[in-house]
Design a protein that fits this description.
Layout (H helix, E strand, L loop, with lengths): L1 H15 L1 H13 L2 H10 L2 H8 L8 H10 L5 E6 L17 E9 L4 E5 L1 E3 L2 E4 L6 E11 L7 E11 L2 E12 L5 E9 L8 E7 L6 E10 L6 E7 L2 E6 L2
Parallel strand pairs: 1-2
Antiparallel strand pairs: 2-13, 3-11, 4-5, 5-10, 6-9, 6-11, 7-8, 7-10, 12-13
Helix pairs in contact: 4-5
Length: about 240
């Protein structure tokens, strides 16, 4: 009799809370609860970091974990990231060890880069530059169509600080007919100052129907030829400085 009563009460509880149980199960599935629990049990901390983090982009934790697993760091190598992201040196850093100045972990790095400028009210804006930028070495302008005749344009590069535009390069450039792209080369030292730098490029006379895109060309400060590459994956490096 007691067993029948217990079964009946259990059935009533399930019937009354069926919707809630289904909702909880759907919620757990949508957040990959069971898969996450499986990974938590199967993999250790470093394996989970490699599987769940970007390998060589943004913070590049995957690459840093890979190095920690494959190299015995007798001292803490210096870490530099060429994107605006949290540093990942916490993965390996040991406060009991010294910093190894000749060893370098370099993330998301290219020696030279082309940075797209976004058009805003006839001004081409560059809202983010690489943290390791050394020099601005030029501007590349692509046209939507070839010009039917030669035409001159005034190209000005601004650094935007405290809402003010300061001209750092200005040049009259002749665009010849049948031209589809123009490379303007110069060299400006931009190593000093904040890593969060804003630039603007304007073109006079401006015609939205002429210009397809504008790119800022930059050179970054780490010269790879001065280092021996110990490990390289995509644009991430583990380096040793040459004597």
């Amino acid at each position: 009799m007691k067993i029948k009563t217990i079964r009946k009460n259990l059935k009533n509880i399930i019937n009354k809370n069926l919707f809630l149980l289904i909702f909880i199960m759907l919620l757990l599935v949508s957040f990959n609860f069971f898969q996450n629990v499986f990974h938590l049990i199967k993999y250790d901390k470093n394996e989970r970091l490699m599987r769940n983090s970007e390998f060589c982009e943004k913070s590049s934790q995957g690459f840093v974990v890979y190095l920690k697993e494959n190299y015995n760091f007798e001292e803490n190598p210096l870490l530099l990231n060429n994107t605006i992201s949290p540093l990942s040196d916490w993965v390996y850093f040991d406060f009991k060890k010294k910093i190894e100045k000749k060893k370098l972990i370099l993330l998301n790095y290219e020696e030279s880069q082309e940075i797209d400028a976004k058009l805003s009210k006839s001004l081409f804006l560059i809202n983010q530059t690489p943290p390791l930028m050394k020099n601005i070495i030029g501007i590349k302008i692509n046209l939507k169509n070839t010009l039917s005749a030669d035409q001159s344009f005034l190209i000005r590069l601004f650094k935007i600080e405290d809402g003010k535009k300061n001209v750092i390069h200005s040049e009259d450039i002749l665009f010849k007919k049948n031209l589809i792209s123009k490379l303007i080369q110069f060299n400006l030292d931009e190593m000093k100052g904040s890593k969060l730098k804003l630039y603007g490029i304007d073109i006079k006379p401006f015609n939205e129907n002429i210009f397809q895109s504008v790119k800022l060309l930059v050179q970054n400060k780490i010269e790879l030829e001065k280092y021996t590459i110990i490990e390289k994956k995509q644009n991430c490096y583990y380096l040793k400085k040459n004597d």
